[in-house]
């Protein structure tokens, strides 16, 4: 697996949009318009502000869930955030997970695949 590359306009912090991944679905703007922006010269969104409140964090995590292409990623190591993402079957959006959460994430992906 290749290492995701952050779009250069992302605000510094743990959440980011991967370079060249955005499909211009606009879903993050429906959930957290204050946390995302469009790059002027391309169909690429980016994280313009990192979440600083619990409500903003909830909306950022919800944005990860609703985005069409899985371009919003989490690079941090906050276990609570990692668990939330894993349990909503978005663990794959974490750049790194402790081994126990990586196993749980894989189990949930496998379970989803088997249900289809």
Describe this structure in words.
Helix 3 packs parallel to helix 4. By secondary structure, the chain is of the alpha+beta class. The strands form two sheets. A two-stranded antiparallel sheet has the order 1-4. A two-stranded antiparallel ribbon has the order 2-3. The longest helix is centred in the last third of the chain and has 17 residues. Helix content is 38%, strand content 10%. It has a single domain, classed as Alpha-Beta Plaits. It has four helices and four strands.
Short structural summary:
Helix content is 38%, strand content 10%. The protein is an alpha+beta fold and 116 residues long.
Task: Give the end-to-end Cα distance, rounded to a whole number of Å.
Answer: 24 Å
What is CATH's topology name?
Answer: Alpha-Beta Plaits
Which spans have pLDDT < 50 for at least 5 consecutive residues? none
Strand content: 5-15%
Question: Biggest sheet: strands, sense, closure?
Answer: 2 strands, antiparallel
The sequence of SSEs as H and E is: EHEEHEHH
* Number of domain modules: 1
Helix/sheet category: alpha+beta
- The share of residues in helices is 25-40%
Describe the global form.
globular
User: How are strands sequenced across the largest beta sheet?
Assistant: 1-4
CATH-scheme architecture: 2-Layer Sandwich
Number of helices: 4
The average pLDDT is 94
Rg from C-alpha positions?
14 Å
């Amino acid at each position: 697996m290749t290492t995701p590359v952050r779009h250069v306009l992302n605000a510094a912090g743990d959440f980011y949009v991967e370079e060249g991944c955005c499909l211009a679905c606009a879903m993050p703007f429906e959930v957290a318009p204050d946390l995302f922006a469009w790059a002027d010269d391309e169909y690429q969104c980016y994280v313009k502000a990192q979440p600083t409140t619990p409500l903003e964090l909830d909306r950022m995590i919800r944005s990860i869930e609703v985005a069409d292409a899985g371009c919003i990623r989490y690079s941090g190591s906050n276990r609570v955030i990692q668990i939330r993402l894993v349990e909503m079957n978005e663990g794959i959006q974490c750049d790194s997970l402790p081994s126990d959460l990586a196993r749980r994430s894989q189990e949930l992906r496998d379970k989803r695949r088997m249900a289809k």
